[in-house]
Structure formats: structure tokens, C-alpha cells
Amino acid sequence: MWTKDSIRAKLASDNVMVERSLLVLYNLQTTHERVVVGTTDRNNIGFNSPDAKFLSRAAVWVQKGITKQIPEGQRLSGEYRDRIRSRLLKYAGQLAIQANAGTKAPR
């Protein structure tokens, strides 16, 4: 059973978890939100408004890395990955719900 704390701990130490979590949250965005690269619905699902643009673009970057067959955990690097990691920590509750429901990031 995943908890907010266990999600935060895993995010803090695991680059693969950062990429997978980013994609899980991105896929919770509505189709319209993905198209406009923002948050338009107040549904408490996916990214919040301040993070939507940055994290959506990062998710698209990770998806491109998948198609280029860049190994998991290596699609984001350095300070960019650290900025994403720090923003994802606030979504630990949503991520725990998804993890406990068996939701997987697309490959």
C-alpha cells in the first residue's frame, strides 16, 4: 500500500519514479488541458495551474524520449529533473491513489 510519505521518499531517490509519476499525472489531465498545455478544469486531478505548463512540457519531453528509446530514468537530467522532482512532491496524494489503483505510466 502506497502512502504520501512512501511516494515522496521514492521520488526523492529514484529517477525512474520521477519520469513515471510525471507521465501518470500528465495522463490525468483532460484532453483539453493537454492541448492547451494548462489547467482549465477545477477537478483536483493532474497538475495545478502554476505547474501545468512546465510539467506538461516535461511530460511531452519524456514521451519523446520513450519513442527514441532513451533508457528509463535517463530522459530527464540535472537541474531540470530536480525542478520536476520538487514540484511532483506536492502530488504525492494523487500519485498514491493511482499507485494503489494499479495505474501505470504508459511506455
Globular, elongated, flat, extended or rod-shaped: what is the shape? globular
Strand content: under 5%
Q: What is the domain total for the residues?
A: 1
Structural class: mainly alpha
- Count of discrete alpha- or pi-helical segments spanning 4 or more residues: 6
Specify the biggest β-sheet: none
Order of helices and strands: HHHHHH
Low-confidence stretches: none
Count of distinct strands? 0
Rg over C-alpha atoms, rounded to the nearest angstrom: 13 Å
Helical fraction: 55-70%
Distance between the termini: 23 Å
What's the mean pLDDT score?
89
Molecular structure report:
It is globular, with a radius of gyration of 13 Å. With 107 residues, the protein is mostly helical. Helix 1 crosses helix 6. It is 64% helix and 0% strand. The protein has helices at residues 4-13, 15-28, 31-36, 49-67, 78-88, 92-100.
